[in-house]
Amino acid sequence: MTAPVRTTKMSFSRWAKTAATGLLAATLVFSSAVTNAASAAGLIRDAETETLIRDYAKPILNAAGLGSQGIEIHLVNDRAFNAFVVDGHNMFIHAGTIMMADTPNQVIGVIAHESGHITGGHLARLRSQMAKAKSTALMLQLLGLAAMAAGAVAGEGNIGQAGAGIAFGGTEAMMRSVLAYRQDEESSADQAAVTFLNATQQSGKGMLQSFEYLNRKLLGVEGINPFMQSHPLPAQRLSQLRGLVTSSPYYDKKDPQELQFRHDLVRAKLVGFIEKPEVVFNKYPKSDRSFPSYYARAIATYRDKGVDAAMPLLDALVQAQPDWPYFHEIRGQFLFESGRASQAIPDLEKAVELAPEEPLIRVMLAQALLSASGPRNVDEAVKHLKFALARERSSSTGYRQLAIAYGRKAEMVPAQARRDFLARADLASAEAYFYEGQLDLAKMQAKRAKTAFIEGTPNWIQADDILAFQPPKTN
Fold first, then answer.
1. What are the structural domains of the chain?
2. Count of alpha carbons within 13 Å of 87, Cβ hemisphere only?
3. Most exposed residue of 72, 95, 151, 413, measured as fewest CB within 10 angstroms of its CB?
4. Is 87 helix (H, G, I), strand (E, B) or coil?
5. What percent of the chain has pLDDT over 90?
6. For 352-407, how does the pLDDT look when each residue is reduced to its tens digit (9 = 90+)?
7. Cβ proximity of 12 and 30 under 8 Å
8. Element (H, E) at 56
9. Which Pfam families does this UniProt record tie to the protein (predicted)?
10. Which residues, including other chains, have CB under 8 Å from residue 127's CB and lie 6 or more apart?
C-alpha cells in the first residue's frame, strides 16, 4: 500500500423547551427533549470533529462575550447545510455544513452568525413575540412557513408544497408582525457575526460564501412576499452582508494551513461515514493519495467490506502520521466493532496517550477493556470512565459501562464489600437512564442505590438528586 501524501502542514442541558432560530431553523419548536441518546436524537458524537468545532468556536465565543457561558455545539446527522440555536447554551450544526464547506472559515462564519442570535437575545424576544399571538393556529401557520422555506432549500418539493398549504390564510397581520421581526434579527445576527470575525482578525468571506450558497438554493422561493419569510430576501440580505464583509481589513485573510488540514480530514471522515460507499469512492478516488482521501476510503471500505479490507488503508495512515490520535482511535474502533476487543485496546490506549483530554475515546477504551477478560482490565476501565464522566457529565454510554464495571467488581471482592459495588452499579445505571430520558427507570435504580449509601455522602446526594428531579411541565 502506497503511503498517503500530505498536502498541507499539520502539526445539553438535561431537558429543554425552547424556540429555535438560525440559518433555516423552524420558526417554532413546541418542545425539545435534549438527552444523551444521540443516535435517537439524530446527533453525531465524534471526538475529532467536536474538538475541531470547539477550536473554530472558541475565539468567536470569547469575542462575543460567551466564552464562560458553557455553550455546547452539537452535530446533527443531516446532509443539509444548516445551523440553529435553541437557547442561550445549545447550538446545532448539521454535518452537511462541514461536508459542503471548502474552508474552515465557512463554518466559522456560521458559528459567528449563530452566536449573533445568542448575544442579540433573539430567542427570548422571539418567544415573547410568539406569546403575544396566543394562537395555536398561528403557530401552526408559522411552522408551515418554516417548512416551506426549508423544503425549498433542501430541494424537497413536497415539503415546500405542504408548508405552503399550511401557511396560507389565518391571522395574516399577526404573522407579518412576527416574521418582520425575524427578518430584523437575521440581519442583526449577520452584523454581529462580522463584528466577532473582525475582533478575532478573521475574514467574513466564508460566511458570505455560505449565504451565497443558500441564496442559490433559495431561488425557488424568491417570489414569496418578503414579509412571509422567516429570513430577509436573499438578494437584500446578501447585499448588506457583502458590504460589511468586503470592507473588513481581514477580507483576504486565509485560514491557517494546519486548520485547513484538520478541516479536510474531518470533512472526509463525515463523508466516509454518512455517504454511500460508492459515493465516497467517487469523491475520493484511489488516484488521490492525500490523507483525507485515505481517511474517507478507509471508512467507506470498512463499511462496505469489513475491517480486514480497510486495514491496509488504516495502517498506511497510522504509519505516515503516528502522532495523530484519531487515526489510532478509528483503527481501534473498527477492531472493537468487529469483535476484536483485545486487538483494539493498544490502538485506543495510544489514542488516549496522544489525546488524554478526550472523554469519548476513554469511554470507547473502557468498553474494549470490559469486553476483554481480566480484573486489571476492569480497574483500568473504571479509571478511564471516572475521568471521562468528570468531563462528559451526561454520557449515558459512559454510565452504562461504569455500571457494568462495578457489577464485575462486585463479583471479585469479598462479600462484605459486594453491597457497596452493587449500589454503585445501581447508581451508575440510574444516571444512564436519566440521561437517556427514562426518568421512571432512573428513579427506580436511584431509590435502590440510595439505601446502601451513608446519608450526605456524594453518592447518596447523587441518588437523591435523581429522585427529587421533576421534568418541566408542558403547556
1. 21-257 (no CATH), 259-468 (1.25.40.10)
2. 17
3. 413
4. coil
5. 61
6. 999 999 999 999 999 999 999 778 899 999 999 999 999 999 899 999 999 999 99
7. no
8. helix 47-63
9. Peptidase_M48 (PF01435)
10. 18, 19
